[in-house]
Amino acid sequence: MELSKEVGLITAKGREVTVEVVISVVVVVVAAVVVVVVVVVVVVVVVVEVVEVVVVVVVVVVAVVVVIVVVVVAVVVVVVVIVVAVVVVVVVVVVVVVVVVVVVVVVVVAAVIVEVVVVVATAAAAAAVVEVVVVIAIIVVVVVIVVVAVVVHSLRPSPARAVMNVHYKY
């Protein structure tokens, strides 16, 4: 390879490749890589969102089932205790104790459900932060591509410079 008198290179096969063509090819390759990276990031974000929705649905369904089971068990226990209390008056103290225990169990289960919902909400907030970071990264990548395109455009030889090169060539 030898450096030609004009802006460019002469390849081994005698074809001329200008600096502008080389820079354009590099910019296209970099832009393609950036597009692939952005697509991968978007796919990852979508997968995270889908997983997040599935987790929230599963947690809500489990919470509803647990609440229904606890309420049914509490009602059955209270009804059984009341029936026994009607039959045996002495059991009234036991009824009060069982009702208090059932109420405490219901309150504890409700507190656990609220804690699970808070944890899920915190995970959703973290996912929102990740989304904002991804959007900012995409904006930065687009700005970099625009800056590179402007620089490449400014490196192109102007027609006036080409005319001057012809006059001063010999």
From TrEMBL:
Q: Which UniProt keywords apply?
A: Membrane, Transmembrane, Transmembrane helix
Protein known as: ABC transmembrane type-1 domain-containing protein
Q: Which residues cross the membrane?
A: 21-48, 54-80, 87-113, 119-152
Organism, per UniProt?
Elysia marginata
